[in-house]
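Tokens for chain A. Residues wanted.
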């Protein structure tokens, strides 16, 4: 028995926030001292991350709203009755945060909220949230795989949704990275040899657990009680380059797949330079240069929407909405991510 993706959907918010939005922001360093020229900060930011704009949710939306809309599209795409779902697995990190507020709302679970919005009355459709940093959606697929192969489920809805724009410190230049969005897939059992071929997942928490954390504003005299998403960028970069290519390699080894069979590498969209370096190092393990079109990117226009980036990327490619990118039956795709925990994972999938 194996699993296959039979439908996908994504919600890309309509609010485009271009880099110029930040040109009058006062950015401070960790010591609370100002960067003198915001425009130079923005230009350097774009050169490193590749981000030109990002998307923010509407003021009347929270993460579970985005998750619901992406899920409904995935259900429609799969052509299934939502009542036949055995599990709803919703990966996020910060819950529902109303616009202009600072308190996260996670009770009931976001997955239960999506189940209610979908109108699913079947009590045996189990809904739960998954907190695993940016690799959360990938890990949700691995959970679905375990449930299906164990006989506990036949069909699962796996969602990644986040509104990172609600947890950013306006004085931190890293706030320009983050975005909002949601992506979802329907996964079901199959006796086809295609589907999930191999996976790798790990948590490094001794030295690495605080590389991404919740910390105080860089404006030390105000916002003293509020906490925001903070990251140690250099530490994360070095960690990702050392761990993610090896996880990707392990997938190939576990499946006995030649690297030349990979048609696409769908990697978490956090930083263009970092992703390019990960890809380069991965192919270097095989003394190869990465093919020019193997790693589609959405970070330029969508920013980093955490758990939503990979399912959104997959859905947009499948729908033909990314120029010169496509996915065909039989293609082998390598999914990979890294994020808070510090967690890494990867899985190899044949369409």
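Reply:
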């Amino acid at each position: 028995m194996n699993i296959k993706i039979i439908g996908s959907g994504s919600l890309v918010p309509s609010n485009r926030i271009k880099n110029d939005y930040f040109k009058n922001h006062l950015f401070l360093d960790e010591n609370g001292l100002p960067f003198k020229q915001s425009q130079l900060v923005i230009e350097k930011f774009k050169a490193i991350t590749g981000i030109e704009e990002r998307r923010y949710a509407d003021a009347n939306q929270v993460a579970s709203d985005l998750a619901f809309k992406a899920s409904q599209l995935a259900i429609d795409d799969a052509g299934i009755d939502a009542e036949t779902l055995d599990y709803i697995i919703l990966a996020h990190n910060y819950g529902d945060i109303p616009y202009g507020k600072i308190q996260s709302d996670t009770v009931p679970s976001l997955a239960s909220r999506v189940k209610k919005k979908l109108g699913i009355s079947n009590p045996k459709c189990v809904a739960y949230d998954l907190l695993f940093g940016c690799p959360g959606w990938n890990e949700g697929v691995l959970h679905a795989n375990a449930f299906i192969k164990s006989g506990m489920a036949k069909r699962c809805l796996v969602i990644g949704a986040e509104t990172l724009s609600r947890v950013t410190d306006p004085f931190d230049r890293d706030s320009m990275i983050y975005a909002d969005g949601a992506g979802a897939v329907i996964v079901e059992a199959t006796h086809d040899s295609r589907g999930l071929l191999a996976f790798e997942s790990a948590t490094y928490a001794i030295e690495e657990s605080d590389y991404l954390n919740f910390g105080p504003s860089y404006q030390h005299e105000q916002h003293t009680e509020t906490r925001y998403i903070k990251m140690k960028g250099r530490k994360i970069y070095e960690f990702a380059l050392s761990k993610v290519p090896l996880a990707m390699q392990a997938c190939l080894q576990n499946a006995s797949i030649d690297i030349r069979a990979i048609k696409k590498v769908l990697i978490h969209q956090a930083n263009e330079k970092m992703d390019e370096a990960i890809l380069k190092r991965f192919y270097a393990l095989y003394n190869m240069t990465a093919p020019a079109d193997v790693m589609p990117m959405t970070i330029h226009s969508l920013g980093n929407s955490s758990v939503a980036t990979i399912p959104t990327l997959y859905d947009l490619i499948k729908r033909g909405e990314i120029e010169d990118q496509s996915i065909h039956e039989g293609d082998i795709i390598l999914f990979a991510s890294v994020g808070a925990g510090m967690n890494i994972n990867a899985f190899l999938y044949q369409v």
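The helical segments are 38-49, 63-78, 110-118, 136-150, 233-255, 272-284, 299-302, 309-318. The longest strand covers residues 180-190.
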